Amino acid sequence: QSALTQPPSASGSPGQSVAISCTGTSGDVGGYNYVSWYQQHPGKAPKLMIYEVSKRPSGVPDRFSGSKSGNTASLTVSGLQAEDEADYYCSSDAGSDTWVFGGGTKLTVL
Amino acid sequence: EVQLVESGGGLVQPGGSLRLSCAASGFTFRTYWMRWVRQAPGEGLVWVSHINDDGSRTTYADSVRGRFTISRDNAKNTLYLQMNSLRVEDTAVYYCARGNYRALDSWGQGTLVTVSS
């Protein structure tokens, strides 16, 4: 149950696009199409942004998109806005009803 | 509106026990699997435990297996986490979350557990 690997930080200017990676193994990210992404603002509960690699829950702007290649998943935020500044976490099924999260990425809007 | 409200957190000495509760409303609780996730101060999210919809199947992170027990009472729409043999490193905000599409689509506000002498 090792944590997935995310870059500690990412940044971009308003209107730009930024991608956050999430690297695991064939036992988690690479083995299942059950990667999800969560946004967390300081002092708040996490919010689901992407599920099943690339699907968006109702109410999540289409500026947020997800993808996966091999053992690495990615979250892309297009048209960056000030309110996108937050921590982002990926997670993945790891088999037998176990789960693993990434270490988190702090997204800064410059 | 889906609501999850955790309670039961507080200060406990190492080796002590605590029972967290998560009261669910606004959805048919008995049809959803549920999870506990924790976050130590200034740290990231960590999955703690999973329980299926009828409570017949549970799983745990290696760090808590044998010390924590997840359970649910579908008649009371409540999820529980019994935490025994608590360690300093268990200090965290504990969130309950609803499972849907193999993701966690609704989260509570969290309850803080502090393990300290």
Please describe what this structure looks like:
The complex is a heterodimer of chains A (110) and B (117). Chain A is built from no helices and nine strands. Chain A is an all-beta fold and 110 residues long. In chain A, strands 1, 3, 4, 7, 8 and 9 form a six-stranded mixed beta sheet that branches. In chain A, a hairpin with a 2-residue loop joins strand 5 and strand 6. The mean pLDDT of chain A is 96. Chain B has 117 residues and is mainly beta. In chain B, the strands form two sheets. In chain B, strands 2, 4, 5, 6, 9, 10 and 11 form a seven-stranded mixed beta sheet that branches. The mean pLDDT of chain B is 97. The chains are: A mainly beta (110), B mainly beta (117). At the A-B interface, strand 3, strand 7 and strand 8 of A face strand 5, strand 9 and strand 10 of B.
Task: Provide keyphrases for this structure.
heterodimer, A: 110 residues, 6-stranded mixed sheet, 3-stranded antiparallel sheet, globular, B: 117 residues, mainly beta
Number of helices, counting only DSSP H or I runs of 4 residues or more of chain A: 0
Counting helices, strands and paired strands, the structural category of chain A is mainly beta
First-residue to last-residue Cα separation of chain B = 40 Å
Strand proportion of chain A, as a percent range, falls in 35-45%
**Overall average residue pLDDT of chain B:** 97
Give the low-confidence spans of chain B.
Answer: none
Strand count, sense and closure of the main sheet of chain B? 7 strands, mixed
Radius of gyration of chain A, CA atoms, in whole angstroms: 13 Å
What oligomerization state is this entry in? heterodimer
Largest interface: A-B, 28 and 25 residues
Structural class of chain B: mainly beta
Instruction: Report how far the terminal alpha carbons of chain A are from each other.
Output: 34 Å
The rough form of chain A would be described as: globular
- Rg estimate of chain B, integer Å: 13 Å
Outline type of chain B: globular
Uncertain regions spanning at least 5 consecutive residues of chain A: none
In this structure, how is the largest beta sheet of chain A organized?
Answer: 6 strands, mixed
| Extended strand count of chain B | 11
Q: For the residues shown, what is the average pLDDT of chain A?
A: 96
The succession of helices and strands of chain B, N to C, reads: EEEEEEEEEEE
Question: What letter string, H or E per element, gives the SSE order of chain A?
Answer: EEEEEEEEE
